[in-house]
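@channel sequence for tomorrow's demo:
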Amino acid sequence: MFDQNRGNIAAARAEAAAAEARLDAARLEAESAVRTSAARTAAAESRLSAARQGESTALEAYRLARIGYEAGRLPLTELVAARRALAEAREQTIAAAVERISAQAAVARLSGVATPGEQ
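structure tokens (generated this afternoon):
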């Protein structure tokens, strides 16, 4: 009667402060996740660019090997090897593109941006 409910008031203030601290921690964690996903997206963009350059180089090598084979200057094994290298380069380009899309989707999801088909 004489303490004017000070114990409950102090408990409520402590609970509010704890809730505020949890909110701040969640906010920092979310911001960190967005930054990490953005960095992952940038890295995926770089890998995709490199993969596309590799695919372009492999395509040119295959084109030259095919010309050499058709002219009778290269054996079939060289043409097959160039074709295999081109297929592997295309596979790397596709994998890099998938990784980039995945990273972009993670950024969108963490940022609260709707991706196509989610609306």
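heads up for whoever presents: The CA atoms of residues 62 and 81 lie 9 Å apart.
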